[in-house]
Amino acid sequence: MFDRLSALDASFLYMEDAATPMHVGGVAVFERPREGFGYEDFLALVGQRLSYLPRYRQRVLPVPGHLARPVWADDVDFDLNYHVRRSALPAPGTDRQLFDLVARLMSRPLDKERPLWEAYFVEGLAGDRVALVTKTHQSVVDGIGTIELGQLILDAQPQERVPFEDTWTPRHRPSRAQLVLDAVTEAVQRPGELVENVRAAAQDAAATAGKVAGTVGDLASALRTMVRPAPSGPLNVPVSGGRVFAVVRTRLEDYRRIRARHGGTVNDVVLTAVTGALREWLLSRGMELTADGTVRALVPLAVRDAELAEFSPAALIGNEVIAHLVDLPVGEPDPVLRLQHVGHAMAEHVASGRSVGARALLRVGGFAPATLHSLGARTAGSLSGRIFNLLVTNSPGPQRPLYAGSARMIEMFPVMPLVRNQALAIGVTSYAGGVYFGLNGDRKAVSDVDVLAGMIAESLAELGEVRAAW
């Protein structure tokens, strides 16, 4: 019997449409070493590592009549060159050109007739740099059985190229009759599931998401705000198929200095910088903000199992990244008071005793920011968009350099997906002394995403300059 998609994984396939592709992305920029690092080097590196991730050679097969959820099956026609693609900017390529390319790539759904991932090796960047752009469907990454591709290829030390020979042999593809027989066998064992599978495939995507939302994890911390919808505004509009992407580069030391001066955590400072930027952005659009005006952010946070004495990789499974809803005080003009409001809202999560700090996450072997961002996107994708205005994920990364082959990574930016009626998603990652924001926006609703990105840097600078009044 073949491996069947979980209810949550299947829901991401049911919910997907042309305007809201359900994949998570990442952009990593590398220095090209003296000995060079080209497409063939990268292709060989990915090919060597795929044996650790069988899911990346498997495709989704639907069951006739929707008698059961789809299954994962080896792609008998797997073509590594199809998934690992070569691209180039007109030299000398600018960052703006790179991010325009990222926006176009992220707007395109993945091919469901093939394994659900793609990677682009982008050459031509000024300064002898190359970039890696990845796309992985949310149904693929669960954090334990399968991690994000960007995590797979990075090492703590430079690696020499090793000749790659693909000896993988796929298992046979199941026939339609076999898929039906397996589904009927499961239905006999669990008769209620047959009706649910047919209903889930036929119902509206939002209903499907609601049905599986309970599998995401403990949402007790969010229940009080779920009883009322998120504030209305320009961030909650029907999403088009186009995307815009912008980044912000900041230094981790600035966040630590603000935290030391005003209290709170680095994550509080990140959310406060986003809050200040959203305030200025809304005002620039002519919106009137009351003193108690808010924008509600869904902030997925890693937690540990309460029954485990020690935090371990086993505790960081998909249902241990929980949805925490935070009302960002965009109506508050004072940046320090904004930080206090955010810190108070986040303190409840910390007080639960289950929160996982940045240092604990970094001690977990085999865990990386790309995977946590993917888990955060899974959490957001399973919830009703009516209860939050935007997604903000923040994952601490290693503070030492990482390498793809012999090329040193110098920057990394998450690209979070948009869901129905959600025009903006923000991913944040710290790495090697920097804090990097990736802002993915709808091309129609948030065409000025680069302006918003600049406002995040200004908001952080404002926090660093203001001294507490007491």
TrEMBL record:
The record's catalysed reaction(s) read: an acyl-CoA + a 1,2-diacyl-sn-glycerol = a triacyl-sn-glycerol + CoA
Please give the biological process terms from Gene Ontology that the record holds.
biological process involved in interaction with host; glycerol metabolic process; response to hypoxia; response to nitric oxide; triglyceride biosynthetic process
Question: Which pathway, per its entry?
Answer: Lipid metabolism; Glycerolipid metabolism; triacylglycerol biosynthesis
Q: What range(s) does the O-acyltransferase WSD1 C-terminal domain occupy?
A: 318-463
Keyword Transcription recorded: no
InterPro entries this protein is in? Acyl_transf_WS/DGAT, O-acyltransferase_WSD1-like, O-acyltransferase_WSD1_C, O-acyltransferase_WSD1_N
What's a GO cellular component annotated to this UniProt protein? plasma membrane
Q: Which GO molecular function annotations are given, in alphabetical order?
A: diacylglycerol O-acyltransferase activity
Chain ranges of the O-acyltransferase WSD1-like N-terminal domain:
5-270
EC number(s) reported in the record: 2.3.1.20
User: What class does this enzyme belong to in the EC scheme?
Assistant: transferase
Family note: Belongs to the long-chain O-acyltransferase family.
Q: What is the official name of this protein in its record?
A: Diacylglycerol O-acyltransferase
Species this chain originates from: Amycolatopsis arida
